[in-house]
Amino acid sequence: MRLKYLFFILPLLVFFGCEEPIFLDVPIGATRTIIDANVSESNSLSRIILSRSLPYNDTTSFPPIENASIVLFPTDFGNNTFPFNFQGSFSYGALYTPQTQIRLIPKQFYTLNVFLPGNEVEQDTLFQAQVRVPTEVPIEKISFRKSQDQYIVRIHFTDPKNELNYYSWRISQKINGQFILLSPSRIPLSTDRGIDGKSVFVEYPFTSFSLNDTLQVHLKSLDQSVYNYYVAVNNLIEASGTNVSVENPPSNFASTVTGQSPLGFLSVESVSDTEEFAVIDSLLVN
Amino acid sequence: MTTFNSTAQEKRYNFDFFELTYTEAIQYITDSCGVNFIYSDDNIPMVKRITYDKNATLKEVLDFMFDGRFLGYRIDNNEVIISVKRIPLDSKEGRRLPKYTVSGIIREKSTNETIIGATVYFSDLDIGTVTNIGGFFSISVPLGDYNIKIKSLGFKSTDTLVHINQDYQLNLKLDMHETKLKEVLVLSSNSEIFEGVLELSNITKVTPELTKELPMFLGEGDVIKSLQLMPGFKSANEGSSELSVRGGGTDQNLFLIDNVPIYNATHSLGFYSIFNTNSLKSVKTYKSGIPAKYGGRGSSVIDVHLREGNNQHFNVSGGIGTISANVTLEGPIQKEKSSFIISGRRPYTDLFQLNSSDGLNSILFYDLSAKLKFQLDPKNTITTSGYFSRDKLAFEDVSSSEWGNNTANVTWTSLLSPKLYSNLGLWYTHYNVSNIINSVPETSYKTSYTIDDVGLKYTLEHYITPFVTIKGGVESMFHLYNSGDITPYDEKSIVTPTEAQDIRSLESAVYFDAEWNIADKVKLGIGGRFSRFDNFKNSREIIENAVPYTPNNTNSSVSVLSDTIYNKGLQIENSHHNFDPRLSISIGLSSNQSLRIAYDRMSQYTQELNISTLPSNAGVWIPSDKTIAPLINNQFSIGYLNKINEGMFDISLDAYYKDSQNILELKPNGQLLTVDNFLNDVTTGIGRSYGFETLFRKRKGIVTGSVAYTWSYSLMQVDDINNNNWYPTNQDQRHVFNILASFEITKQIQFSAVWNYASGRPFTSPIGKHHKDGYVIPIYGDRNAARLPSTHHLDISLTFYRKMHEQKRNESSFNFSIYNVYARKNTYSYIFRSNAINPEQLETVKVYLFSILPSFSYNFKF
After folding, report:
1. B203 part of a folded domain
2. What CATH number is associated with residue B595?
3. What confidence score (pLDDT) does residue B618 get?
4. Is the Cβ–Cβ distance between B478 and B453 less than 8 Å?
């Protein structure tokens, strides 16, 4: 409901408002550790990014945290572990990917340990979060809606009956021979309220594709807590301003050091990936 | 008077007595001057107290005490003989005198409509009263000849001489002022103290007609925006018709249209109020000293009454403005006996629909009101009225929203005796919001959210003596909240319809208000309201595995539906009850000054939860239940009034402190996913507000106007929010200035100007940023710890009047207004978002609404 109402509030300014970019001198808060952990069996999506926050008006890259030890394990079976390796630093922080192919047990709780070794001024810190693996919902087919000369992707699936399900979806596009995960203007989200147990589709309206584009589609099932986290993130992406109640999204990470409250969330997701396909081929099949 | 001893009379004495009764003062003078008084104890005022602190002659002090209105005197040798001109009402004999009731109805001359709040003042007795919502007054006086002065805002005063030797019916008609702004702009009844009536409440009145002469916003006169020029009434945002009164939330104002509560009093996301000025008779607001007959909201009452229609002639009136047009038809059904009025308003905004590639953006509203009045006989009247409003907002063809209020009521007023007035009302109000999401037709849906209330209220007013009036009554209202039906919208939609639970409750109250003139110029108001709120079990009760949110248990959650139970009939599940005492005392310090002290306790059983500070339809009203306790406000206030230079100027100073319990708030990161299961999304907190208000007015002359200033704080504290620290509410604004000036260029041309200054509102400032999944997201600091810049703007208007017929029945006026003359780009809000060119960077965008905005309005009456 919150999202839905914001949908109406923001365009108010379309009718009445004028905009003017300004520089606003805002206070500088304490530096926070950021743990952005999307974990799944999908090689396209599974990764962890560690970084530090920046002052609001800072224009530099996000400081990476490169020396962390990261391991994922089923909460009740601590011996079946999946370590993550540091892959490199980018403008958004340090990238860590699974050392081995992750295999998740549905409905099982998983724990992520992020250990940051200390130095002369900081003590060792362990961040820990746990979340449950949701039911995987397979993609049944991909179809398209024509929008002028371009195509909007539709993802078809059947919602599992009698349980609350939460979804997000992403698309990778082959650009210059490499698959790039596209960044939509907001995180696509849906629940099964009103469509419980039905065969439905969702759209990816953020990018229109041409016939020759090659894509891979990812449908993510989310835990309720992850969905709530994404809703909170979307509220800030879409409506961040002084006219709405703003709050930092919740974090499910706890810290061994008092006062070291990280931002970010552990999301262990059940992801259904399509094969790589060209839009034109898919249209011919349909 | 015999002047046998001129030396004694010319001798000056240092009189210095304070608050003495007449008997004590006489003794004081006897001791000081060595004179004897001859008088009857029965004729000396018992309760009136006098203060005299001057170096004066005996004659001067006697002239002060015995001014000839009630008692005179003469000096004979060494004796002062008190003579009785008229027996003082507060003397022993005065109290024993047989009294006769003078009662009647005050009406407007041209339309025969009753006038609310007119002052009926017996200058010879120095007592008076005020007409009630039916224009009725009643007062008991001894036998005698009296001059009665009748005054009301916007009308010419009338004096009439009457001889009272039995119960007397006095029905009078007042004529309207031709130029409304000539004497007063927005009058607070507080000043009526000087006309023999001490007001117990802090009342601000706005005459709807006056709004047509003030600078307008988009060509619409708006009584709520006029009210915002008065101290203590703040706009929720620039250009907004939402009200925040003394630090209370915008949901804490009881808006009544003909005694029927309204849940959303704004159009077009707050830019207009829902009140069409042409259909209004009176707007009376209470900030403190609130009578116990009002309840259900925490901070204020805005009591609006619709016009009843002209029962003499048919009239057509209307107006055309920059944005909208309105028309009103009225006339007699049976001359002198019954009348009707119907009034409607509609904008042309749908004609300015904004074309976009995907469809149309539109914003539209309309409202309609109608009222019928039947005078069954001189003692019984039945009125019925209805109000209907609708707003529609559509964005391209993917989403739209509609909302509106409908009300209906039937009221029977009856004069049971010249001293006993009764009012029985049956009413209904309906508030509805529906939203359509149609981004994908196959999953498009419509949500609807409704509140239906049915109420019954019976009030008795007993004007027992000139000094005591008792009003009491009972009321009960049944609430039905249907908070979120989901239905498929497009015919292709596969969305399963979901029917929300109907949440039912009954709110009942019994109340009394006693007004007692305990002494000359001292009036005491004692009121009490016992209210009860019963939650009934839902007839179709959905049981979910929900863990309610509590500050200590942040793991609240919604799980799957576990069961559905069907409950028969009305089974009470939970009850709240409260006793709200209301106390006020008003003291006339002198003929020009008064002091008013009040305590108000207000209970509110349903609160609106808003996720935005923008006025919108996005709020959801949530009733109290077993986990949400009602909002309780306790307010202490004190006010001082002073009239200067025979009413040329007046000044009022008010201070208040208010504490609040159980203010409803979203829990940290609450999302209100389902309205019928909100236990895990909400929490409550406490609040406190305090402030100081002052109003200085120049009420007479070519130039009239007012300067209003409010200094205030409004804070709240909610566990788990802002680290449990107190933080400013969205209504917290330190300083608000309003300067209003009006200049009568000629009888037909009026110039008005309003300058408004307001401190910036609080907002939650970003203090950093982080990266998440391709998005750069601000990190926010303490809630409402930063401030938007202050705003100010100057608005002017020029109003031309034209009388088209000598009998004054046909007239027109043209108002040309400019909003924000010096085109200041006042900050409305900030937006923090990714830069469109470089999404890796955040940008801050200042939003301003109106730099300079001319508008016009033409009003006519035939």
Report:
1. no
2. 2.40.170.20
3. 66
4. yes
- Write down the pLDDT at residue A33: 92
Which of A1, A7, A56 faces B769 most closely, judged by CB atoms? A56
Count of the separate structural domains present in chain B: 2
B397 belongs to a structural domain: yes
The answer to whether B101 and B140 are in contact (CB under 8 A) is yes
Given this model, what pLDDT does residue B441 score?
A: 77
Would residue B172 count as lying in a domain? no
Q: Six-digit token pair at B503?
A: 């949440």
pLDDT of res. B155: 80
Could you give the CA distance from residue B90 to residue A165 in angstroms, rounded to a whole number?
Answer: 78
Does residue B555 lie in a domain region? yes
- Report yes or no: B157 and B175 within 8 Å, Cβ to Cβ: no
B chain contacts of residue A3, beta-carbon cutoff 8 Å: 671
- On the question of pLDDT at A71 being above 90, the answer is yes
Provide the pairing of β-strand A82-90 with A69-74: antiparallel
Decide if pLDDT at B180 tops 50.
no
The answer to whether the Cβ–Cβ distance between B771 and A201 falls below 8 Å is no
Nearest of B206, B235, B259 to residue B386 by alpha carbon:
B259
More confidently predicted of B762 and B74: B762
Q: Say if residues B656 and B248 touch (Cβ distance below 8 Å).
A: no
- What part of B 817-846 touches A (C-beta under 8 Å)? 825, 828-834, 839-846
Give me the sign of the Cα torsion angle B564, B565, B570, B576. negative
Could you give the dihedral angle defined by the CA atoms of residues A53, A56, A60 and A65, in that order, rounded to the nearest 10 degrees? Answer: 0
Contact B671 A9 (CB under 8 A): no
Count of CB atoms situated within 10 Å of the CB of A58: 14
Convert the pLDDT of each residue in B262-311 to its tens digit.
998 888 767 778 888 888 888 889 999 999 999 999 999 999 999 888 88
A231: which chain B residues are within 8 Å (Cβ-Cβ)? Answer: 671
Written as six digits, the tokens of B770 are 């982080």
pLDDT tens string B474-524: 999 999 988 777 888 888 887 777 777 888 999 999 999 999 888 777 889
| Cα gap A154→A200, rounded to integer Å | 10
Pairing type for strands B791-803 and B749-758 reads antiparallel
Closest partner CB to A21 (pick from B774, B779, B843): B843
Contacts of A18 in chain B (CB under 8 A): 825, 847-849, 851
Q: Which tops the pLDDT comparison, B168 or B343? A: B343
Please report, as a single letter, which amino acid is at residue B590: S
Which of B59, B91, B123 delimits the end of a domain?
Answer: B91
The pair of structure tokens assigned to B721 is 């929010």
Contact check, Cβ <8 Å, B669/A244:
no
Count Cβ atoms within 10 A of the Cβ of residue B680 and give its class: 0-12 exposed, 13-18 middle, 19 or more buried. Answer: buried
**Residue-range definition of the domain harbouring residue B499:** 260-861
**Per-residue pLDDT at A1:** 37
CA distance A36 to A226: 12
Comparing CB atoms, the residue among A19, A51, A201 nearest residue B771 is A51
Structure tokens belonging to residue B347: 């904008």
Residues of chain A with Cβ-Cβ distance to B563 below 8 Å are none
Taking CB atoms and an 8 Å limit, are A1 and B675 in contact across chains? yes
- CATH number for the domain spanning B56: value is 3.55.50.30
Verify whether the Cβ–Cβ distance A19 to B781 is below 8 Å. no
Task: Please tell me the predicted confidence (pLDDT) of residue B178.
Answer: 62
The residue among B50, B69, B91 that closes a domain is B91
pLDDT, greater one: B814 or B669: B814
Kindly list the residues from chain A whose CB atom is less than 8 angstroms away from the CB atom of residue B844: 21-24
Closest-CA residue in chain B for A203? B440
Of A56, A198, A246, the CB nearest to B764: A246
Burial class of B452 by CB neighbour count within 10 A (0 to 12, 13 to 18, 19+)? middle
Owner of token pair 């009998």: B807
Domains of chain A: 2-10+32-285 (2.60.40.2420)
